[in-house]
């Protein structure tokens, strides 16, 4: 009798545990989706914004936002939620332990010193160029993006280099589903023109953008290939059009970027 009661209790606890697990994981997934909803174009979100960008209900988005406020990851003011510096701990978990950013940093620093321009490293993640390391040049006005930021792969120099490393099938799949949003008057929004730029990057080993992402900003990127010849990252330089032309940046930067990208590739 006692054993039967114990078995029933164990079964009930098992049912409770198994029923909680999916809810717990779903809650975690929603919270992470809300965190990822913040980006360079969405530095603050309302509850409605968060719900729309995460494809969830307003009630669920509100619970996630308030939980993140309670944990110190967000601030809340007049209906707007903004990330706090504590959010850097999440990216730090990757940056402090992953080998690629650690191996890349000395190469980026030397490339920056050779060019006197900011140099970055990005990887491809879910159709975005995600910046995982950067050596910043000392200037009054900084250019480019910070570590942890991401840009659409199809209209950024880093992204085009990374997409050029895909197979034709993978590239076709990406282009079929990508959203060609206009960011500046120079942004390419024709799918064939975007494909041509990516294929040109595959052929030449270099990609560039001229005010396609942001007015007044130029960027050039080259691939970082591992020992198997696979493109694992893109090394890029960004500069202001007020200081240099695209032609002059290409002349100065491409050989330097290739040198340090090859050095990094030999370490991978």
From TrEMBL:
Top-rank taxon: Bacteria
This protein's record includes keyword Zinc: no
Keywords on record: DNA-binding, Transcription, Transcription regulation
Record-level GO BP terms: 3,4-dihydroxybenzoate metabolic process; negative regulation of DNA-templated transcription; positive regulation of DNA-templated transcription
Ranges where the record places region Disordered: 1-23
A molecular function GO annotation: DNA-binding transcription factor activity
InterPro entries reported in the protein's UniProt record: GAF-like_dom_sf, HTH_MetabolicPath_Reg, PcaR_PcaU, Tscrpt_reg_IclR_C, Tscrpt_reg_IclR_N, WH-like_DNA-bd_sf, WH_DNA-bd_sf
Domain IclR-ED: 86-268
Record-linked Pfam families: HTH_IclR, IclR_C
Name of the protein this chain belongs to: Helix-turn-helix domain-containing protein
Keyword Ribosomal protein on entry: no
Origin species: Rhodococcus pyridinivorans
Lineage: Bacteria, Bacillati, Actinomycetota, Actinomycetes, Mycobacteriales
PANTHER family associated with the record: HELIX-TURN-HELIX TRANSCRIPTIONAL REGULATOR, ICLR FAMILY, TRANSCRIPTIONAL REGULATOR
């Amino acid at each position: 009798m006692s054993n039967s009661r114990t078995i029933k209790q164990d079964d009930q606890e098992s049912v409770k545990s198994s029923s909680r697990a999916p809810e717990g994981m779903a809650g975690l997934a929603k919270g992470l989706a809300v965190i990822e909803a913040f980006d360079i174009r969405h530095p603050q979100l309302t509850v409605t914004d968060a719900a729309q960008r995460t494809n969830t209900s307003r009630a669920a988005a509100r619970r996630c936002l308030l939980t993140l406020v309670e944990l110190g990851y967000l601030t809340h003011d007049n209906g707007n939620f903004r990330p706090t510096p504590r959010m850097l701990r999440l990216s730090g978990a990757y940056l402090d332990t992953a080998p690629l950013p650690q191996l890349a940093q000395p190469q980026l620093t030397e490339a920056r010193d050779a060019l006197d321009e900011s140099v970055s490293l990005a990887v491809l993640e879910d159709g975005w160029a995600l910046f995982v390391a950067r050596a910043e040049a000392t200037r009054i006005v900084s250019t480019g993006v910070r570590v942890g930021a991401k840009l659409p792969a199809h209209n950024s120099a880093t992204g085009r280099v990374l997409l050029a490393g895909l197979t034709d099938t993978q590239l076709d799949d990406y282009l079929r589903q990508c959203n060609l949003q206009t960011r500046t008057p120079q942004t390419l929004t024709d799918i064939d023109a975007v494909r041509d730029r990516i294929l040109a990057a595959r052929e030449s080993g270099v990609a560039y953008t001229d005010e396609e992402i942001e007015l007044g900003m130029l960027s050039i990127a080259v691939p970082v290939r591992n020992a198997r010849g696979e493109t694992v990252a893109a090394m890029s330089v960004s500069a202001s059009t007020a200081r240099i032309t695209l032609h002059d940046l290409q002349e100065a930067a491409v050989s330097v970027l290739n040198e340090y990208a090859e050095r990094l590739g030999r370490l991978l």
